[in-house]
């Protein structure tokens, strides 16, 4: 029998970027908020003098323990899914702050085209341009409606950046400049800028949550500038220069005295009756005790996979059925196309050990619908960039194709090219298809005996055509930059879950304008339970050509506003 605790105003499932923003905004408004986090407590002091690549980058200190809970994967419904036993394609964070602790800090705004992709594509090219099995849909919100919340997130984090030269063409008008100046321009970045300008393209400095200068945000949180140490992705920032929930929103929520965090608390079910959630059931993993936590409002703020899994386990919302196309929970899982790129080898040395997670330069000439797709066999595009994230010694060993994989020649090529190679990459959009989805695995279970989430996904011809296109463009840029030899990656094979690609998973609890085609409305409020809100990239109906965190943050700010409206009103679905 589970122990029942006193009711709270709001209970959060997960305390990362989404949960932290919700907690900050609701507690400032006077609500009592409880955050349940299955991992452990974290603070900046945990990372002092801990530039340990082996521990964090290769042994995944900040990640979920896959022996207790993982995902299963299959490329199609004809094969049996198998569990991911070791980390590869993506990294699942664990602990206070979630993936917001170990991210790189690249903070983009999605394009107006992203939010209205189906209607804008149909308007320009006709409905026949969209493949029959492609299930892209409009979000139910526009860029202009979300823009003020992008601005709030950027000011919260102190994003360092400069205007996109294609702002007018793309429709990405800003209400305010970035709060801090762009980061330093490394020599390789200048080469990229000079080369692409000669090609008639429009480079700009990558928007960065690694502070270019000391900054105090509107809530009074002060942080130091980035030291360009190169330990961002997979690491916590010892300087607090990289914006993350632990150094921004969580302290503000705690200061109100209305935010309680319970770590080591694994939420296993949302409790509900009559179309309303009554609270959650969780297990204290330190004691093994089951606890019922009643709440007026339940907010799911966990990672993409867990948001879908928890709703499916709780039998809240209709599971998606790919055969009929009906149902919504698990629908439109999407990833990212990162195989279109190239590495150039030069006759000059660069200092590539220094860097930061979002130190880079990029362009959007081939992103969204900024270029004509009439004669192309794919939709959307991708952001192309050169970034200098810090070439740590264990994970980085660039050698040209044809180099022996061991021995004297391998060692010589490794030493020669470590500081003489630059990579230009394309981050391509991943569009949703009818047969890409999430559901509960019928065979494999977690340490509590609950079914794991199962991914059914593979790259499509859309993705292969996009990878060829972006790979060719990256190769052309490196030629203009003066590379003596270039290895380009243009061919995209079947999706392989083994090598790391990105942690940009999206979909499963998607937003839209109708309960027939979406799980949540434009406030991220569930159609089937109006006191349940679901935050995160799980709401994206398809993925973009950018990193998702900026959009996750903007939607979280907007949803906090919606929750306050709901709490002050008489309930029901928000309009």
UniProtKB/TrEMBL annotation:
User: Which keywords does UniProt give here?
Assistant: FAD, Flavoprotein, Oxidoreductase
GO molecular-function annotation terms? oxidoreductase activity, acting on CH-OH group of donors
Q: Which SUPFAM superfamilies match?
A: FAD-linked reductases, C-terminal domain, FAD/NAD(P)-binding domain
In this chain the Glucose-methanol-choline oxidoreductase C-terminal domain maps to 441-556
Q: Does the keyword Transferase apply?
A: no
Keyword Oxidoreductase in annotation: yes
Which domain of life does this protein belong to?
A: Bacteria
Q: Which family does it belong to?
A: Belongs to the GMC oxidoreductase family.
This chain belongs to which protein, by name? GMC family oxidoreductase
Which species is the source of this protein?
A: Brevibacillus fluminis
């Amino acid at each position: 029998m589970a122990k029942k605790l006193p009711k709270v105003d709001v209970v959060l499932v997960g305390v990362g970027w989404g949960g932290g923003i919700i907690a900050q905004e609701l507690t400032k408004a006077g609500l009592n908020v409880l955050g349940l986090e299955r991992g452990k407590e974290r603070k900046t002091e945990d990372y002092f003098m801990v530039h340990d690549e082996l521990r964090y980058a290769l042994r995944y200190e900040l990640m979920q323990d896959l022996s207790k809970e993982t995902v299963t994967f299959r490329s199609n419904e004809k094969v049996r899914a198998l569990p991911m036993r070791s980390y590869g394609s993506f990294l699942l964070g664990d602990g206070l702050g979630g993936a917001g602790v170990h991210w790189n800090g690249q903070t983009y705004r999605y394009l107006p085209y992203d939010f209205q992709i189906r209607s804008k594509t149909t308007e320009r090219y006709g409905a026949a341009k969209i493949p029959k099995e492609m299930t892209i849909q409009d979000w139910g919100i526009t860029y202009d409606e979300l823009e003020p919340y992008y601005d709030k997130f950027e000011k919260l984090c102190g994003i360092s950046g400069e205007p996109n030269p294609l702002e007018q063409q793309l429709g990405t008008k800003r209400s305010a400049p970035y709060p801090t100046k762009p980061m330093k321009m490394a020599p390789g970045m200048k080469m990229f800028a000079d080369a692409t300008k000669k090609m008639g393209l429009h480079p700009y400095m990558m928007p960065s949550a690694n502070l270019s200068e000391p900054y105090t945000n509107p809530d009074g949180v002060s942080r130091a500038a980035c030291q360009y140490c190169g330990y961002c992705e997979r690491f916590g920032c010892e300087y607090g220069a990289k914006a993350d929930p632990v150094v921004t929103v969580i302290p503000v929520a705690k200061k109100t005295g209305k935010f309680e965090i319970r770590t080591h608390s694994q939420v296993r079910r949302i409790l509900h009756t009559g179309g309303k959630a009554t609270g959650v059931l969780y297990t204290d993993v330190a004691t093994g005790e089951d606890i019922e936590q009643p709440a007026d409002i339940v907010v799911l703020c966990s990672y993409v996979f867990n948001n879908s899994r928890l709703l499916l386990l709780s039998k809240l919302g209709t599971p998606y059925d790919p055969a009929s196309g009906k149902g919504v929970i698990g629908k439109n899982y999407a990833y990212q196309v990162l195989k279109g790129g190239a590495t150039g080898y030069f006759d000059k040395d660069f200092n590539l050990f220094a860097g930061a997670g979002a130190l880079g330069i990029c362009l959007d000439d081939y992103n969204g619908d900024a270029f004509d797709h009439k004669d192309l066999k794919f939709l959307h595009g991708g952001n192309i960039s050169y970034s200098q994230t810090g070439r740590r010694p264990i994970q980085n060993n660039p050698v040209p194709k044809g180099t022996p994989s061991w021995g004297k020649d391998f060692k010589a090529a490794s030493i020669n090219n470590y500081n003489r190679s630059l990579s230009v990459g394309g981050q391509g959009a991943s569009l949703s298809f009818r047969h890409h989805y999430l559901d509960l695995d019928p065979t494999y279970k977690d340490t509590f005996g609950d079914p794991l989430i199962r991914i059914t996904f593979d790259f499509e011809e859309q993705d292969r055509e996009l990878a060829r296109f972006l790979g060719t463009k990256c190769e052309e840029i490196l030629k203009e930059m003066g590379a003596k030899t270039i290895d380009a990656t243009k061919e995209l094979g079947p999706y392989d879950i083994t090598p790391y690609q990105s942690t940009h998973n999206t979909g499963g609890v998607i937003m839209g304008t109708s309960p027939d085609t979406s799980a949540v409305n434009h406030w991220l409020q569930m159609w089937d339970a109006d006191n349940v809100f679901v935050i995160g990239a799980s709401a994206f109906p398809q993925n973009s050509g950018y990193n998702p965190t900026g959009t996750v943050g903007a939607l979280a700010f907007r949803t906090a506003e919606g929750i306050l409206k709901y709490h002050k009103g008489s309930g029901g679905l928000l309009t």
